[in-house]
Amino acid sequence: MSTDLWLVVGLGNPGPTYAGNRHNVGQMVLDALARDVPGTFVTHKSRAAVLDGRLGTLPSGAPGPRVVLAKPTSYMNLSGKPVAALMRFYGIEPERLVVVHDELDLPPETLRLKKGGGEGGHNGLKSISQAIGTRDYLRLRVGVGRPPGRMDAADYVLRDFPAAEREDLAVTLVDAADAVTDLITEGLLKAQTRWHAAR
Q1: How far is CA 142 from the centre of its chain?
Q2: Quick one: pLDDT at residue 149?
Q3: Which of 27, 32, 83, 199 fits a disulfide with 177 by CB distance 3.0 to 4.6 angstroms?
């Protein structure tokens, strides 16, 4: 088992049709995070696009921690199999798995870090928990808010972020990438203290 490697998974649906959807905000965060990891995403046999590298530079000047950024190429509700396959391939335990996903129960631009707990009806999380046999992994919840009026939640998350929200979204994605970095480099409690107070 690897003792210094982290797996960061951004949830979403595959292909350009879904790329701008609220449901794909987890993969958008990974694209922002990838700016601090040398290299490019490549296809992995686990049914995911992965980027394996060092996350930034430590204050000492040494390379940052090793991370595998992964965007499953399965549909959201089948995310568990690629994640479980990546964990086996890289020898990663659940405590070093970080899943980034959209969250209806948080207002837009809100970030929340947690370990374990329920899935809140999120099919991607349900699939992962079932496939790896535990809920005790780390999550970054990225708020997308509740649908207006009587709009169905599934229809809402499968719509693109509207133009009026995209400027704020760009800031949120950078902040979310920084929150993942803090989680990995400083630990859950310090990262929660910083990011939960900020929002």
Answers
A1: 9
A2: 84
A3: 32
| Rounded-to-integer distance, Cα 135 and Cα 9, Å | 15
Instruction: Kindly list the domain boundaries of the chain, sorted by start residue.
Output: 5-198
pLDDT of residue 119: 84
Residue among 53, 32, 49 nearest 41 (CA):
49
Which residues of the chain are under the pLDDT cut of 50? 1-2
Superfamily name with CATH number, domain 5-198: Peptidyl-tRNA hydrolase (3.40.50.1470)
Residues acting as catalytic residues: 23
Annotated binding site for tRNA: 18, 75, 77, 123
What does the pLDDT read at residue 58?
Answer: 76
Tokens of 80: 């568990």
**Residues constituting the chain:** 199
Residue 1 has a pLDDT of: 46
H-helix or E-strand spanning residue 154:
helix 153-157
Instruction: Give the whole-angstrom CA distance, residue 139 versus residue 103.
Output: 11
Q: In what order do the strands lie in the sheet with 97-103?
A: 42-44, 48-54, 66-72, 5-10, 97-103, 138-143, 111-115
pLDDT digits (tens, 9 = 90+) for 85-141: 999 999 999 999 999 999 999 999 999 999 999 887 899 999 999 999 999 999 999
pTM for the full predicted model: 0.94
